[in-house]
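Checklist before submission:
- one chain only
- standard amino acids only
- sequence pasted in full

Submission:
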Amino acid sequence: MKDTARTVLTEAGINVDTALKRFLDDEEMYFEFLNSFVEDTLMSRLKQAVQNGSVDDAFEAAHALKGLCANLSIDSMSKMIVPMVEILRGRSMEGIPEDFKGLSQTYENVCTAITKVCTVQ
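Returned file contents:
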């Protein structure tokens, strides 16, 4: 992996070293999964559920997103979504709309980094 790609991803909160170990150092496969993250609909599903006040739908989307972020080592999002999942697991929406705003900004930063790196590869 080029140093610039590693730097861009790391600055977005992605732990590249941990991720590559999980992907058996297969950079091509990792980049494919990063690209699919950008195209995934979980964030839009979570946004819709939060807007609708649907705890069950928000929990389902947030829980799936938590797993996806963990698998791809997107630590910047993982550290934000884990507490959200626990609140939703308790069948509460307390603070979720506010937390979602921060998560959305982090998501945009992550997607921008991934897009930048994956188009360079």
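Reviewer check: The chain has a mean pLDDT of 95.
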